[in-house]
Amino acid sequence: MSFSNSTKIGHSVLSQRIINEIARLGPMTFARFMEMALYDPNEGYYMTVGTQASGESTQDSRIGWSGDFYTSSDVHPLLAQCLIKQIREMDELLGRPSQLTVVEMGPGKGLLARDVLRACVNEDADLSARLTYVLIERSPVMQKIQAHHLGEFLEKGWPIEWHTSLSALDQHSVHGVMLCNELVDALPVHRVRVSDHRIHEVFVDFQGGTLCEHLGELSTSDIQDYLACYTDGLSLKWPDGYSTEVHLELLNWMEEVARVLQRGFVLTIDYGHTASDYYDMSRKDGTLVCYHKHTASSNPFVRVGDQDITAHVNFSALAGKGTQIGLSVTGFTNLMNFLLGLGADEMLADVDPESEEMQSAIQFLRPQSMGQTFKFLVQHKAIESPTLAGLKFRPFFEEALLGVGSEH
Ligand SMILES: C[S@@+](CC[C@H](N)C(=O)[O-])C[C@H]1O[C@@H](n2cnc3c(N)ncnc32)[C@H](O)[C@@H]1O
To answer: Which of 3, 42, 293, 406 is the right S-S partner for 23, CB 3.0 to 4.6 Å?
Structure first.
């Protein structure tokens, strides 16, 4: 096998770095490949500005209408407006502390933060005066974009802090709300596939001038433990050819959140499913998908470093891991029900039904659009059985969510 020729695919410098590592160490786990493709400090997808860069707003080129994919934060401020209503209710339940901290993890362009802060200023002067907003963002490039979008607050001296990792925060230092929107689906995943009636790991190899898959033994026993704990027993039934993802990073992230939170709530918003939905036969090829210029593909080995790679979230794993480490499940619902519970229909009552604004906002409420595919998991710590407006309509049973993992 020759590794000396440059690959024909993707970002040449980054691909070559990956190929060189494979040459040195052998096939790499998919999680390592995804880590390099998205977060290589020099060439990773989220660590660089996209190819369309030109002028000031170009930094938006990865996420947004001119980029590769858009998030709910690009669609309409309705989510942020409902979030602040939810945060205000949480603040009440926490007894309106003299300082309420909101930690947003993986803030993307910072649009959600901007819209949450705008709504807070409009609606609650008292909370605005007590609020500290902390952004956890590993990419220096994304931090710059966030600062640009939060300029109106920074100029006024708002207490907004940035850290590259939760590890920068002290144990039990947060009294408030920790939230993220589409962070967990951007964490690197391992991939597994059943072959000869056994679960193998999918590694990344370089053969015949191209990056390709290579099946091998599991790289760590943590994968076996995850399959035993967080697949609702379905991994025992997968037939040959079944492929899926294993989210070890999600468990580490949950541990970090639990370590940092002293008292308050954790709100995780993302594409995802309970384990029984995630790992059934309807998803026999897994949920991994790549985005480039709003086109989805299943091939992570092209445009390496120049396309997004994402996998849906196993919410049962988050909930199950959380309960083991002091985060109780407050509830689990979807975007549509979360927004309706917080009165989104009333908030839109004055908007012209034919207007562009309504067409954007309605995407959140349509079951076939983002309304059902986006899920909300709320967890709490050191608060007695809280009831939240955003969880008024709960289409999911907590037992389905917590049927797995709790005994481990
Ligand atoms: C898909 S974007 C999130 C979109 C954004 N929350 C929104 O509402 O539009 C993922 C973001 O998470 C950041 N990220 C990924 N892993 C991270 C980690 N471990 N810690 C902090 N930020 C991370 C990425 O750099 C990127 O800014």
So the answer is: 3
179 lines ligand 1 (CB under 6 A): no
**Ligand 1 center–CA 54 separation, angstroms:** 23
For residues 158 and 337, give the distance between their C-alpha atoms in angstroms, rounded to a whole number. 32
Query: Sign (positive/negative) of CA torsion 63, 67, 69, 74?
Result: positive
pLDDT at residue 192 in the model: 98
Taking the CA atoms of 28, 34, 35 and 39 in sequence, report the sign of the dihedral they define. positive
In a domain, 48, yes or no: no
Q: Specify if 367 maps to a domain.
A: yes
**Which tens digits make up the pLDDT trace of 303-359?**
999 999 999 999 999 999 999 999 999 999 999 999 999 999 888 888 888 888 888
Instruction: Go through the chain and tell me how many residues it has.
Output: 408
Ligand 1 pocket check for 105: Cβ under 6 Å: yes
| Residue 98 covered by a domain | yes
| Number of folded domains that form the chain | 1
The reply to whether 285 falls in a domain is: yes
pTM score: 0.93
SS3 55: coil
Range of the domain at 286: 58-188+246-402
CATH number at residue 345: 3.40.50.12710
Rg (CA), the chain: 21
Question: Which residue minimizes the CA distance to atom 11 of ligand 1?
Answer: 106
